[in-house]
Amino acid sequence: MMFDFEKPSNQTTLETVSTLAHMARFVVADLTDAKSVLQELQSVVRASPSVPIQPILLASQEEPGMFDFLHRFPWVLRPHFCENKDQLLTDLADEVIAPAEEAKKKPQR
């Protein structure tokens, strides 16, 4: 599920994203041209050890510099790299969703 929403008047965007992540079975985080995503992920990852995080990234890009911090958390999965949107759609079930679902089945950390 992708969310595109207006900023709530009673919460910051970070608080809203964290709330949604707490309710999710898992999170797929697109790190392609990541800007605010890393800040949001740091908050989500620390507060939600029962929510697996599956990063995705274009193969032509490197992991963002600050992403090394998130590698320390076992519920942050290895990033899935794809060449383009079509490959991502082809890989989605087996290479993105399946690893996140498998991680969800493991006991909470």
In short:
By secondary structure, the protein is an alpha/beta fold. The chain contains 3 helices and 3 strands.
Mean pLDDT: 87
What is the end-to-end distance? 25 Å
User: Are there runs of 5+ residues with pLDDT below 50, and where?
Assistant: none
Largest sheet: 3 strands, parallel
Summing up helix and strand content along with how strands pair, one would put the structural category as: alpha/beta
How many structural domains in the coordinates? 1
Rg result: 14 Å
Order of helices and strands: HEHEEH
Helix tally?
Answer: 3
Portion in strands = 5-15%
The best one-word shape is globular
What percent of residues adopt helix (DSSP H or I)?
Answer: 25-40%
Using DSSP, what is the number of strands?
3
> Numbering strands along the chain, what is their spatial order in the largest sheet?
1-2-3
Description:
The mean pLDDT is 87. The chain has one domain (15-105). It is built from three helices and three strands. It has helices at residues 13-23, 37-47, 85-105, and strands at residues 27-30, 53-58, 80-82. The longest helix is centred in the C-terminal third of the chain and has 21 residues, at 85-105. Strands 1-2-3 form a three-stranded parallel β-sheet, sandwiched between helices. Strand 1, helix 2 (37-47) and strand 2 (53-58) form a beta-alpha-beta unit. The radius of gyration is 14 Å and the shape is globular. Helix 1 (13-23) crosses helix 2. It has 109 residues and is an alpha/beta fold.
